[in-house]
């Protein structure tokens, strides 16, 4: 009996040790993955900041070019309007479902026939339509009720 108790203690110890090794391995793997993701996110942020400054430089150049023939306030106003239109178009491109340029598909067919395949794109046709409507069961109180 003492021998079995000793083996049970060894089994518990082995299981705890294996669990600890597994936790350390998973922790190291997650740490390595998060380090790579942090580096990627930092590079994307730096890229975005550089693009922001590049856009500001382009806006300044457009304003200065317009200021050659116009007063400064008019050139700034035109540049701001151009940037506002660009922002509106970019927002619409980012959310195609919310723009007014994208038509919504009809939910059901009106005055026509159903398409050959369902809109899910699975390529399986709809089941054939019966030529006549199914007969209604009799609801007369004296008729027997048949239920399967």
Describe the structure.
The protein is mostly helical and 148 residues long. It is built from two helices and no strands. It has helices spanning 2-67, 72-94. Helix 1 packs antiparallel against helix 2. The longest helix has 66 residues, at 2-67. The protein is flat, with a radius of gyration of 35 Å. It starts with a helix and ends in a 54-residue tail after the last helix.
Q: Gist?
A:
By secondary structure, this protein is mainly alpha-helical. It has two helices and no strands. The chain starts with a helix and ends in a 54-residue tail after the last helix.
Based on Cα principal axes, name the global outline.
flat
The count of strands amounts to 0
Structural class: mainly alpha
* Overall residue-averaged pLDDT value: 78
H/E order of the elements?
Answer: HH
Give unreliable regions as ranges: none
Give the number of helices: 2
Q: What is the rounded Rg? A: 35 Å
Biggest β-sheet strands, sense, barrel: none
Distance between the termini: 62 Å
Proportion of helical residues: 55-70%
Strand content: under 5%
């Amino acid at each position: 009996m003492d021998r079995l108790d000793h083996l049970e203690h060894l089994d518990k110890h082995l299981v705890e040790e294996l669990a600890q090794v597994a936790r350390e391995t998973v922790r190291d793997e997650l740490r390595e993955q998060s380090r790579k993701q942090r580096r990627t996110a930092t590079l994307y942020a730096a890229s975005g900041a550089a693009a922001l400054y590049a856009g500001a430089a382009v806006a300044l150049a457009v304003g200065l070019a317009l200021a050659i023939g116009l007063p400064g306030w008019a050139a700034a106003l035109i540049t701001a309007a151009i940037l506002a239109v660009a922002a509106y178009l970019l927002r619409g491109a980012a959310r195609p479902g919310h723009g007014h340029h994208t038509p919504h598909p009809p939910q059901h067919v009106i005055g026509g026939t159903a398409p050959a395949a369902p809109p899910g794109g699975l390529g399986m046709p709809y089941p054939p339509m019966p030529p006549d409507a199914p007969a209604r069961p009799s609801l007369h109180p004296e008729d027997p009720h048949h239920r399967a």
